RNA sequence: GCUCCGUUCGUCUAUCGGUUAGGACGCCAGGUUUUCAACCUGGAAAGACGAGUUCGAUUCUCGUACGGAGUACCA
C-alpha cells in the first residue's frame, strides 16, 4: 500500500477563506490520520491576480489553524518550464495540437453558437490540420480530447460521475505566450508531487473530467478524487465577502479558539456518527471520505461558539493564556502586562468554562485585569449605597487576619451575613461592586482568591469610603 | 442554453428497505444559584413535490421544483 499524499492548493488571490480552510483541514486530517504527507502548493500561475500578500495571508491562516504541511511551499509558477515540457510531450505524441485561432474568432464562434442554441464548445479548425499549413503566428496548445465515449470520475464523495466526452472541449494547455494554464499545471504538479488523494471543492468536479484526459494522454495513474460540497453563508447563499466569507484571520480576531474552529469546520460537511465535540487526535483517527456529506452546509456562528466554549473549558491554563495573548495581538488590542497576565492565568480556572470566545472571557476577567482604583459602573453603583458601604466598613476589618482560603472566606462571610440578619446574596452585591465595579462578575470567592488579600481589602476599603470625602 | 451535482427539525447531521426518524447547536419552559453565565431536567421542531419498484420506502428508479457548480488563452 502506497503512502497517502494529499495537498492543499489555494490560489493567492485573497485571504484564506473559510471554505478553503476546511478543504485544507480535510486534506490535513486525511493525511495525518494515515501517516501520510500533507503538501502545500500555491497556484500562482495567474500572475495578474496573484499577490505575495495573499500567499502570506494563507500561510498565516494555516498557521493559526495549526495545519502544518510537509516540505517547502511549492510555487506552481516556478514549475512553468516543466508544465511546458509536458505540453510539448503531448504535442509530439499527437495528443495535443497547435491552434492558431484568434480570440476574436473564438468569440465570434461562441456568439453564433449561443444564438443558434448549439454547443458553445469551440471546435478548432486546426485540430486535424497539416503542420505545413501552419501560419507564422502565435498559437495555443490544445488537448486533443476524445470526442466519443464517456469519462467516468470515480469520486469518493459523489460516486461515479459520468460525463460524455462530446461535452468536453479541447481545452487550452499552453497560452499563446507559452505559459501553462491551470488545468495542465494541476495535473502535472499533482503527478510530480506524488499526490495520491485529491480532496477539493466540488466546483472542480466538472474539471476533473478534463484533467483525467491529461492523465490518460500521459499514461499517468489517476489520484483518488473526493469532491466536497461548498460552504454557504448563513442565508444559504453562496459565500461572498458580504456575509460569512471572512478570512480565517478574522475568526481569530473575533476570538474563536483554533481547536474549536478545527472541530467545527471538520463537523461541517463531515460526520462520525453522533460525535460533535472531539479532539484533533480523534478527528485524525476518525476522518475519512466516507463520512463526508454530499450537500452544501451553512456556516453557523452559534454552533461555532458553542464548540469553542467546550474547547476553552478543557484547554490547560498555560496554553489558553498563550492563545489569548495571540488573540489580543490579532485583534489589535494592547498586550497584557505581567500583573494582568499572572492574574488572568490564576483566574482561568473559573472563567474558561463559561466563555465561548476570548472577548467574552476577557470581559469576565475584567476584575482581574483592572489596576488601580476600581471604576464602578452604574448598574453596580446601587450596591454601594450608604447602607452597603456601612456593611463593607464593618466587614473589611474582619477579613484582615483570616487565612485567605476559600473555606475560611466562605465561613467568615456566611457568618457575617447571618450575624447581620441578611442573606448572603445581599452581601454579594456590594462585594461584587467593590471588587469589580460591576454587577455581574464571577463568584466573589473566586475574585477574592485570584486578587489576593491585599488587593481585595484595598478595593473593599476604597468602596467603603467612597463618597465620604 | 447545455453538462454535472445536491435537497431529513431554523442550522449541522445520523439512518446504509422495516426506527415512536436519533444526536448536537439554537429556541421555549422548569430547576439549581451569589449577580451574569455555566450546569441539570423537560418541550416544540424534519424526510421539497409527484409518480414508480416493493409486502413495506427518508432510504432504490424516474420526473418536477428549487439551489449550486462547470461550460475562459481564471484558478
How would you explain this protein's 3D organization?
With 469 residues, the chain is mainly alpha-helical. The protein has four domains: 139 residues, Rossmann fold; 151 residues, Rossmann fold; 55 residues; 87 residues, Orthogonal Bundle (Arc Repressor Mutant, subunit A). Helix 2 links the parallel strand 2 and strand 3. The termini are far apart. It binds one RNA strand of 75 nucleotides through helix 4, strand 7, helix 5, helix 6 and strand 12.
Concise account of the structure shown:
It contains 19 helices and twelve strands. The chain is mainly alpha-helical and 469 residues long.
Q: Which value, in Å, is the CA radius of gyration?
A: 32 Å
User: What fold name goes in the CATH topology slot of the largest domain?
Assistant: Rossmann fold
Output the strand order for the largest sheet: 1-2-3
Share of helix among residues?
40-55%
For the record, the count of structural domains works out to 4
Uncertain spans: none
Tally of strands: 12
CATH class of the largest domain: Alpha Beta
Under CATH, the homologous superfamily of the largest domain reads HUPs
Overall average pLDDT: 93
Reported for the largest beta sheet, the result is: 3 strands, parallel
Which strand-content bin applies to the residues? 5-15%
Dominant shape: elongated
CATH architecture type of the largest domain: 3-Layer(aba) Sandwich
Which class best fits the helix and strand makeup?
mainly alpha
Distance between the amino and carboxyl termini:
82 Å
Tally of separate helices? 19
Amino acid at each position: 500500500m502506497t503512502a497517502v499524499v494529499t495537498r492543499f492548493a489555494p490560489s493567492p488571490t485573497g485571504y484564506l477563506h473559510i471554505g478553503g480552510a476546511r478543504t485544507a483541514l480535510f486534506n490535513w486530517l486525511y493525511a495525518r490520520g494515515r501517516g501520510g504527507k500533507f503538501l502545500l502548493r500555491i497556484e500562482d500561475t495567474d500572475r495578474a491576480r496573484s499577490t505575495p500578500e495573499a500567499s502570506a495571508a494563507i500561510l498565516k491562516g494555516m498557521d493559526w489553524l495549526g495545519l502544518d504541511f510537509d516540505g517547502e511551499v511549492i510555487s506552481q509558477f516556478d514549475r512553468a518550464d516543466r508544465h511546458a515540457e509536458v505540453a510539448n510531450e503531448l504535442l509530439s505524441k499527437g495528443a495535443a495540437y497547435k491552434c492558431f485561432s484568434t480570440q476574436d474568432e473564438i468569440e465570434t464562434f461562441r456568439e453564433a453558437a449561443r444564438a443558434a442554441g448549439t454547443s458553445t464548445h469551440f471546435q478548432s479548425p486546426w485540430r486535424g490540420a497539416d503542420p505545413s499549413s501552419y501560419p507564422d503566428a502565435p498559437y495555443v496548445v490544445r488537448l486533443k480530447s476524445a470526442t466519443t465515449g464517456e469519462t467516468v470520475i470515480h469520486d469518493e464523495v459523489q460516486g461515479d460521475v459520468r460525463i460524455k466526452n462530446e461535452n468536453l472541449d479541447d481545452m487550452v494547455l499552453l497560452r499563446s505566450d507559452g505559459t501553462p494554464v491551470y488545468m495542465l499545471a494541476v495535473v502535472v504538479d499533482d503527478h510530480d508531487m506524488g499526490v495520491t488523494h485529491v480532496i477539493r471543492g466540488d466546483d472542480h468536479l466538472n474539471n476533473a473530467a478534463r484533467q483525467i484526459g491529461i492523465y490518460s494522454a500521459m499514461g499517468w495513474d489517476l489520484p483518488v478524487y473526493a469532491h466536497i460540497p461548498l460552504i454557504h453563508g448563513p442565508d444559504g447563499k453562496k459565500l461572498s465577502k458580504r456575509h460569512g466569507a471572512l478570512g480565517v484571520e478574522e475568526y481569530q480576531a473575533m476570538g474563536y479558539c483554533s481547536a474549536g474552529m478545527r472541530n467545527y469546520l471538520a463537523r461541517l460537511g463531515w460526520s462520525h456518527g453522533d460525535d460533535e465535540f472531539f479532539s484533533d487526535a480523534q478527528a485524525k483517527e476518525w476522518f475519512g471520505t466516507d463520512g463526508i456529506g454530499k450537500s452544501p452546509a451553512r456556516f453557523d456562528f452559534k454552533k461555532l461558539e458553542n464548540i469553542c466554549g467546550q474547547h476553552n473549558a478543557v484547554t490547560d491554563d498555560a496554553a489558553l493564556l498563550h492563545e489569548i495573548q495571540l488573540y489580543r495581538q490579532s485583534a489589535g488590542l494592547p498586550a497584557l502586562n505581567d500583573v494582568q497576565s499572572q492574574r488572568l492565568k490564576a483566574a482561568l480556572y473559573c472563567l474558561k468554562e463559561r466563555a465561548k470566545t476570548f472577548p467574552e472571557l476577557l470581559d469576565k476577567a475584567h476584575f482581574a485585569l483592572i489596576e488601580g482604583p476600581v471604576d464602578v459602573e452604574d448598574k453596580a453603583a446601587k450596591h454601594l449605597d450608604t447602607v452597603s458601604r456601612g456593611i463593607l466598613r464593618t466587614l473589611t476589618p474582619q477579613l484582615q487576619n483570616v487565612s485567605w482560603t476559600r473555606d475560611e472566606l466562605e465561613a467568615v462571610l456566611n457568618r457575617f451575613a447571618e450575624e447581620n440578619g441578611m442573606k448572603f446574596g445581599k452581601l454579594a452585591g456590594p462585594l461584587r461592586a467593590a471588587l469589580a465595579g460591576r454587577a455581574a462578575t464571577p463568584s466573589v470567592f473566586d475574585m477574592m482568591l485570584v486578587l489576593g488579600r491585599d488587593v481585595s481589602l484595598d478595593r473593599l476599603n476604597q468602596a467603603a469610603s467612597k463618597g465620604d470625602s
